[in-house]
Design a protein that fits this description.
Number of strands: 0
Helix content: over 70%
Radius of gyration: 19 Å
CATH class of the largest domain: Mainly Alpha
Strand content: under 5%
CATH topology of the largest domain: Tetracycline Repressor, domain 2
Shape: elongated
Low-confidence stretches: none
CATH superfamily of the largest domain: Tetracycline Repressor, domain 2
Structural class: mainly alpha
Mean pLDDT: 86
Order of helices and strands: HHHHHHHH
């Protein structure tokens, strides 16, 4: 059976419109929740409602694109931290601080919408694997160096980041307490 055809590359102006819709939707969802009217999204993205619907025929399609955008940013940030910082413990702490900061920008209103959008999404599954791979290898390296407690898994780190992202205030000190708790004694 032949491979499916590669997706066509969008014209630059069409891609700009799509990117603008996704980024503005992410901001609106984070600020106001997932019930923002499509007309409001189009207005904030500075496109017509018809353009919005040509790119995203319904709210689930738009929400999935936003989820892919946000998870892609997280995967990129984690990879950048791993690439930039040679010390695994420093890379891990940079990852945690940056990841929590990104998650705080999303906040609780968007989390439910993102969870619903993830169901059966191949791109999100791939992004999840990227996140798990880079975080898992960094945790393993930090533990092998003796800087991180050996009894903590990368899944524990993911759960802790998720919990910290729910904190509306004081997340900065909570991140530092978490990092201190992860440090080997």
């Amino acid at each position: 059976m032949p491979d499916p055809p590669a997706p066509r590359k969008l014209r630059a102006d069409v891609q700009r419109n799509r990117d603008q819709i996704v980024s503005q939707t992410a901001l609106l969802f984070a600020r106001e929740g997932g019930e923002v009217p499509m007309e409001t999204i189009a207005e904030h993205a500075r496109v017509g409602v018809g353009t919005l619907y040509r790119h995203f025929p319904d709210r689930p399609a738009l929400t999935l694109a936003v989820a892919e955008h946000l998870y892609g940013q997280i995967a990129d940030v984690l990879q950048e931290a791993a690439d930039r910082e040679p010390d695994p413990w420093q890379a891990l702490t940079l990852m945690i601080r940056t990841w929590v900061q990104r998650r705080l920008a999303v906040r609780k209103p968007l989390d439910r919408w993102l969870l619903e959008a993830q169901q059966g999404s191949a791109p999100l599954t791939e992004l999840h694997h990227r996140i798990v791979d880079v975080l898992g290898s960094t945790v393993a390296a930090a533990q092998a160096s003796g800087a991180m407690r050996p009894d903590v898994t990368f899944q524990d780190v993911i759960r802790l980041v998720g919990l910290l992202a729910l904190a509306d205030q004081g997340a900065g000190i909570l991140v530092e307490i978490m990092i201190d708790g992860l440090r080997a004694r």
